[in-house]
TrEMBL record:
<dbReference type="InterPro" id="IPR011009">
    <property type="entry name" value="Kinase-like_dom_sf"/>
</dbReference>
<dbReference type="InterPro" id="IPR051678">
    <property type="entry name" value="AGP_Transferase"/>
</dbReference>
<protein>
    <recommendedName>
        <fullName>Aminoglycoside phosphotransferase domain-containing protein</fullName>
    </recommendedName>
</protein>
Length: 336
């Protein structure tokens, strides 16, 4: 339970910290970050679960909230492409800061120096509304459909944002940049497979590489790099205004790349309301179908590897393996 402090004796902090925060050393570090970033101590700080990075919601008196992220604790195992998540998010928020046609949180604080305990941190916001996971249980089916429609429109607006080249938004040591979408996708796929091979996960790596190589030409039909949030969907990532049923932002932009918008997992199983909100789907020609199965292959492979690294995320490994088998079978048939 988060305690709200409205008045305190002189010399004491007005910041209210959730009792489920870790040790006092962490509390002091968080208090320093929040006070510096928001220029106030009248903030309610709450640790929220279910995110890869340690995430805190910062509630202010004006009704808005901000998000503070910092590196995961040491026991959390990251895949190679996840290492630069905060840098990627900072780059995206900085690049989109001038956009007026879509609600994007501002990059409030992202220091180059490391904070106490050796963790980079990022503060973004303000966010208006509620995180979908907090309110979805109270939503009617009509409200849910309207939110899905709004999310489709939101994703469409993101998909119109052009990039300088295919690949990383923030070029780092664990990212890939290329002048072709085929090479970029192959690099992303290879990164996940190497994570799987490193821990001896039983997967048909040779066949996956062979299928991807045979279908690179279909990927290279995509010639204009656009903004893609690869891991976009999830009720913990979407912020909504429950009164208007509109999406008002996303919590996590750390999986962003410049590529084919249809690679986002938002298109894995889109609802009819999402499709209507997005409003533009490319024709289902042979190359588009091949790309669809390549993206299914990538997302299912990623789910399997993540499940091994972090079983607590409760991914359905069996379902992911079935999807991987389906994608490989369809790609093999197309290559025959």
């Amino acid at each position: 339970m988060v305690a709200i402090i409205t008045s305190v004796p002189a010399g004491h902090s007005k910041m209210a910290l959730s009792p489920n925060l870790p040790c006092s050393q962490d509390q002091l570090a968080i208090e320093r970050i929040v006070t510096s970033a928001l220029q106030t101590r009248s903030v309610i700080v709450e640790r929220i679960q279910g995110y890869l990075y340690r995430t805190h919601r910062l509630r202010t008196q004006n009704g808005f909230f901000y998000i503070l992220k910092s590196r995961p604790s040491r026991p959390v195992r990251l895949l190679h492409h996840e290492e630069d998540g905060l840098q990627i998010e900072a780059s995206v928020l900085h690049a989109l800061s001038c956009r007026s046609d879509i609600l994007i949180p501002r990059l409030i604080d992202y220091p180059n120096a490391k904070v106490q305990r050796g963790s980079l941190h990022l503060v973004s916001g303000p966010f208006v509304g509620s995180i979908l996971s907090d309110v979805e249980h109270s939503l009617s089916s009509i409200a849910t459909a309207r939110i899905e429609h709004s999310l489709g429109d939101y994703v469409h607006k993101l998909s119109t944002i052009p990039g300088p080249s295919f690949g990383a938004v923030h070029p780092g040591k664990n990212t890939n940049s290329s002048q072709t979408w085929g090479r970029t996708f192959a690099g992303m796929l290879e990164s996940v497979m190497r994570d799987g091979e490193d821990v001896l996960i039983n997967l048909p790596y040779h066949n996956i590489r062979d299928l991807a190589r045979k279908h690179l030409a279909s990927l290279d039909k995509i010639t204009e790099p656009r903004l893609v949030i690869v891991d976009l969907t999830g009720n913990k990532n979407v912020v909504v205004d429950v009164e208007s049923c509109k999406v008002t932002g996303l919590i996590d932009y750390s999986s962003a790349i410049w590529g084919d918008p249809f690679m986002s997992n938002a298109f894995c199983r889109p609802s009819s309301s999402f499709v209507e909100g997005f409003g533009r789907f490319s024709s289902s020609d042979a190359d588009q179908l091949i790309r669809q199965y390549l993206y299914m292959l990538y997302h299912s492979l990623l789910a399997i590897v993540r499940h091994f690294y972090r079983p607590s995320e409760c991914n359905d490994e069996l379902e992911a393996r079935r999807a991987l088998t389906t994608a490989m079978r369809r790609l093999a048939a197309a290559a025959a």
